[in-house]
Amino acid sequence: MSSEVNNQEKQSEYVENIAGKHLLLGVTGGVAAYKAAEFARLMTKAGVTVHAVMTESACRFVGPVTFQSLTGQPVYTDLWNTNLENNMAHIQLSRHADMILIAPASANFIAKLANGLADDLLATLCLARDCPLMIAPAMNKQMWENPATQRNIQSLVRDGVKILGPANGEQACGEVGMGRMLDVEALYFAVQQALSGDLARAPQLQGKRIVITAGPTYEPIDPVRGITNLSSGKMGYAIAQAAMESSAQVTLISGPTCLKSPAVTEMIPVLSALDMFEAVKAKAMDSDIFISVAAVADYRIAESSQQKIKKSAQKLILELEPNVDILQYVADRPNPPFCVGFAAETHDLERYATKKRKQKKLPLMVANQAQETLGTDEAALILFDDAGKHILDKALKRIQARKLIRHIAVLYTEYQLQKKNNG
Predict the structure, then answer these.
(1) 87 has pLDDT over 90
(2) Which of 305, 310, 295 shows the shortest CA–CA distance to 226?
(3) Which of 128, 240, 400, 409 is the most exposed place for a label (fewest CB within 10 A)?
(4) What is the CATH number of domain 18-196?
């Protein structure tokens, strides 16, 4: 019952933050247009006025009547609409919008935006807008990976357009890879944050390469058993999302979790501590910032069995050997990235966190009580840096992640200035 009440309270918070806002929802041609219809329904239910603007290709996948029925608002498809004042739909529509979201955004439409084309209503109003623009790409994986598309995406990022996704997974064509439009829930969350003004707002991180580790690791005992921990990955995933909101290039290296992958630049799933170590070695040294959130196993089985160990009446003795300290390895490299560590402790939190920060020579250590944080949606954090400690009272992890990203952005800027001054 308490869980149900909490969910209702969170939904009420969403509605309160965005009710009364005006959203222009641009829909371009693609199978994912059906997701846009569900998204429009959720936004309307939350009290947002949604005006759908559809391209000619979009109308071949979902009819305008669908969006009109779900939003209760007229749907616009024609640049020469004579029902609007001065026959200037591209001006009048965008002037009343708090935000424009293009979902799905096809490769063709992304190319139009990047090059300033204005050959239909949706492209024209994007060019004539005076409000923020967000796009949710959706296309085949080869189209997404094509150098032309990637150039266009980078051009839009430089222009201040927020890119939501795409996600990795099975596509309508039957192939698997990057290019799927984000799920409706992820889109709703991102747009809600933007409309309510609850974004990470760390412009210093735009374009910066950030590598984040998250979740637990799993150390096999035999083919069916292993040693792991209670980390859910929620904090690491929330930080990755917050970093993306600041337009950083985010690589998320994740142990096994039950979470949906956030819309990061690159997602690398791993299993064991050694797997995570290899992934970090391949990615972290080319990054600007390394955030070690993962609960990496301190030990692994010295010799795991290739066959299932049969139960017996005798005690089973397992020999453990230490895993590499991944964060220490990165911090000790010549010219390392800006390193952020996490310390989950059961007691003497401040003492152990401070000791770890000094031992590893880290600019920032984030500490929390393990028994109060692992697997939960909320966390209380203490940030330790050269200026002392900063307490973040208990809050949802997504909120804490944004606060942490803002703090990291400030420290990173100072760190870069010190490096420059030191030659």
Answers:
(1) no
(2) 305
(3) 128
(4) 3.40.50.1950
